[in-house]
Amino acid sequence: MDINSIYQVYFNCELKTKEEVYSFISKIVSQDNPISKEEVIHQLNERDKIGSTLIAEHVMLPHIESDQLKKSQILFIRLVNPIITWDQSKDICLVIIILLKKNESVNIKKRISSFIRSFADEEYLNRLLKSHEEEEFSEEIIGY
């Protein structure tokens, strides 16, 4: 579901592993960008080597920056069932992916940065995790 030009929601996805999530992301990204699926997965894995992308219990925030992206986006993948093990993390229910186009405009960077700060609000993340309907989930994203 395309909420607007920056946010995209994929609700109740049946992905069972980190690898399946990264493959899913790579398919989405490579559809509209000149970047290959393999390159997306490579960049996500390279980011993982720097450190954990766990931002809260049950929530991962993988991200990449590339000059092969046509526009910056934030993807939300709400899983049907938690991923039991993701690196050292357990029971991952929500994956929020930041795709940042290199040399992005200041306005878009500010918008993304502002949204990322919302993750410091534990109650907000809990509302996202507890949303069982796609409409409710999307309203939480738009309404913050």
UniProtKB/TrEMBL annotation:
Molecular function GO terms recorded: protein kinase activator activity
Organism (species): Niallia circulans
PTS EIIA type-2 domain location: 2-144
Protein's name in the database: PTS EIIA type-2 domain-containing protein
InterPro entries membership: PTrfase/Anion_transptr (IPR016152), PTS_EIIA_type-2_dom (IPR002178), PTS_SugarTrans_NitroReg (IPR051541)
SUPFAM superfamilies per UniProt: Phoshotransferase/anion transport protein (SSF55804)
